[in-house]
Amino acid sequence: MQQRVLISKGVKCAGAQGEAEVGFTRSKREFRKCRIAETCLKRLVKILLVILLQRWYGTRKCHIVISATLLIEVNMNITIIKNKILGSLDPEIIERLQLRSLRLPSGHQIEDPGEPIDQLIFIEKGIGSMTTTYGDGFQVEMGLFGYESVMGASALIGTRRSIHKVYMRMSGYGFSCRIDTAISEFARFGRFHDVVLQYIQALLIQACQSAGCNAHHTVSQRLSRWLLLWDDRSDNPILPLTHEYPAGMLGSNRSTVSLAAEHLQNEGLIQYSRGKIVIRDRPGLEKYSCECYRIVMDHLDDDLEAVQS
User: Of 5, 205, 220, 295, whose CB is crowded by the most CB atoms within 10 A?
Assistant: First the structure.
């Protein structure tokens, strides 16, 4: 009887070596079957949660995308990662990136011109800004970062030192990854490599479109575009903005932006007071905005859809 118990556990026993080896092989095969069943169960749970969240919150404004981002541990603790870059990666890639959670307060400096880029940052909540800074201190915004982004990605394609100022405009939180760890994963030329390149392309299009927009469209149209981009990345209907900030980001002076904001308010599109702006009519604001907003968002949506497929 004792031999039977030991054999069923896959333990080799004196006097019954052949029978024990068969039991050991069977044990390994059953273990693999259990692992496969466990993997299938985890994937089923992921799919069900995606369906439920989409039904509850919708797929656009919710900003919650789950693919491989339900990291289900042995004890069944579930962490939902909102960042869409991380959301397109398999769990083993996320594990290799050795992510660390961090708080991202407003004003937190991510990159400084001329300084080395030492980490990637994946925003879960909050809004970051990338600006070109001139010798007299004047800044023009070239891009916004939110739940769809990874900051510091240019270091993966050869940039040693940052040429832009990157900082948090709206406080939040996210994950960081050491740049040497990210470079090692990028060099595998796998999923992470492809996703990052697609995002860099989307960021380049956003910067180029912003440059053309600032030169060609009216301040009211540019302000509309900028407010829409900000609103897309915020889960708060009240945008904490003073006139000084969008003025600097749009390359205009405060009085010009104040007139533009007053015009949008008179049209019933926004409401602003004491450093707070509320979008009252988003469809109307999209219609009033220039085509640059739709070009940027359509391309970003296509890229995000591609990386998640």
Answer: 220
Report pTM.
0.70
pLDDT of residue 157: 92
C-alpha separations of 10 from 25, 31, 32, 36, 234 in Å: 7, 11, 14, 20, 55
For the chain, the first-to-last Cα distance in angstroms comes to 54
Flag the least confident range among 9-23, 189-203, 250-264, 280-294: 9-23
Rounded Cα gap, residues 62 and 234, in angstroms: 10
pLDDT digits (tens, 9 = 90+) for 194-205: 999 999 988 888
Mean pLDDT of 144-166: 91
CA distance 50 to 56: 10
What is the DSSP pairing of strand 270-273 with strand 165-178?
unpaired
- For residue 13, the tally of other CB atoms under 10 A from its CB is 15
